[in-house]
Amino acid sequence: MSVLKIEKTDFVAIVTLNRPEARNSLNPELICELSKTWVELSLDPQIRAVVLTGASGTTFCSGFDLSSTIPIINGTKKPTNDFENAIAQDPSLMGKATLRDYDIGKPLIAAVNGHAIAGGMELMLSCDIRVVATQVKLGLSEVALGMIPAMGGTAKLARHLPTALAMEMLLTAKPMISDRLAESGLINRLEEPGEVLNSALEIAQTIASNAPIAAQEARSVLLASSDLTVEQALSLESSSSSMLMTTEDAVEGPRAFLERRAPIFKGR
After folding, report:
1. 53: which of 111, 139, 258, 265 fits an S-S bond (Cβ 3.0–4.6 Å)?
2. Residue range 113-136: mean pLDDT, rounded
3. The pLDDT of residue 75
4. Are residues 201 and 92 in the same domain?
5. Radius of gyration over every alpha carbon of the chain, rounded to an integer in angstroms
6. pLDDT of res. 72
7. Mean pLDDT, residues 194-202 taken together
8. Are 56 and 143 within one domain?
């Protein structure tokens, strides 16, 4: 059984963490497969939006596998297969798999259909849009294990939650129920568990129906602007807008609107 499932349809890719027997935890094999998959999707011109979810069960992702990944990284276990060797030789694969150190350059929607803990919470934070099930646990448990969230949790959490909530989650290592965070700005949609994937796909399909280069540029400018002055952000916006005006899609969009038909965007 593959630890990672990929489905592609109508310009949308669905990436499913597929280790339900281990709460979809990130073992060396899954880390290697995710690292490879993100690169492949970023380079695939037929994919305009990506949905990340977990195999059906109680957990979206419980973080790094404590019986394999963590012992390899802290040196208490010797590698016994190719995947363990890979992360032992190249620990940066963990940052790539969790999108701490890799940007796929396309809109990424989290369909959080179960608990998201530790590295699973960090994966969720790396997504652009988050659809989360009611009554699931969201948390960063690392300080209770003598570590800190090192896949972006400490760096990103206060960018998405008020500082007081971020501190409580980080320092107590206790998860919070998703319903409590529904109005915090962390979650786009709070859905019943059975509706999470459909809701995320609805968002992804809407995004995929728009001009792909424009969507990617808008995402890029928005993300970059948070670290820029207003003047720098406006300059970046202007440069992006000028580039987009030279594309075929920028001609097709207004033309289709005037002709009262759906646009046919080609991503060029």
Report:
1. 111
2. 97
3. 85
4. yes
5. 19
6. 86
7. 97
8. yes
Q: Which residues form the catalytic set?
A: 122, 142
Is 264 inside a domain boundary? Answer: no
Which tokens is 160 given?
């998405």
Mean pLDDT of 26-40: 97
Considering the domain architecture, whether residues 144 and 242 belong to the same structural domain is answered as no
Of residues 143, 116, 141, the one with CA closest to residue 127:
116
Pick from 172, 188, 208: which residue ends a domain? 208
Three-class HEC string of 80-143 = CCHHHHHHHHCCHHHHHHCCCCCCCCCCEEEEECCEEECHHHHHHHCCCEEEEECCCEEECCHH
Distance CA 130, CA 54 (A): 13
> Using CA atoms, how far apart are residues 21 and 5, in angstroms rounded to an integer?
15
* Domain shared by 153 and 244, yes or no: no
Residue 68, domain member (yes or no): yes
- For helices 212-225 and 248-258, the axis angle rounded to 10 degrees is 110
Which residue has 């993100």 as its token pair? Answer: 38
248 plus 118 within the same structural domain: no
Domains in the chain: how many in total? 2
CB 25 within 8 A of CB 4: no
pTM of the predicted model as reported, rounded to 2 decimal places: 0.93
At 124 the pLDDT is: 97
Query: Quick one: 186 and 161 in the same domain?
Result: yes
Domain CATH for 237: 1.10.12
CA atoms within 13 A on the CB side of 172: 11
Domain that holds residue 132: 4-208
